[in-house]
Request: fold
Amino acid sequence: MNEHISSAYDRDLEEIQSLIMKMGGMVEHAILESAKALEVRDIERADVVRKGDKDIDALEEQINEAAARTIALRAPVSKDLRALLSVLKLSASLERVGDYAKNIAKRTPILADLTPISGADAALRRMSKEVQAMLGDALDAYVRNDVELAENVRQRDLEVDQMYNALFREFLT
Reply:
């Protein structure tokens, strides 16, 4: 973010950015672990992911409070205000992705008892790796303010949606 007259203001902004990156790392890990738990049918690993979602939720609250406090105390304008508002949206999106990882983990015990569908594990692995890469790129785009990379992530999201729909159709047939 920017250099300001108040070093305390800069510290506030750096702390918020650090919290976002920590949350992003936790969500990346949750995606990896939930996909792995499903792939190898590891119910204990899935349970760890499910329980860890509370930490992701708590971090979202911490980020929201820090951003709201900074907005209230520092009255940011222009670029700083947009950055803080984007932090609120980003933390909500990361929390939602964390919920998706938790939902995969919650369904793992049920799916572990079913007969595996040919090719499903490879498709899930491909999809989870792409989602992890997209999340990493989205966080990089945020930190570097890289609009092109952010747009690339958005386009890749459409591809993941297509992968998901194809996999879902496979499950139904």
Remarks:
- The CA atoms of residues 127 and 160 lie 6 Å apart.
- Residues 115-173 form one domain.
- The chain has five helices and no strands.
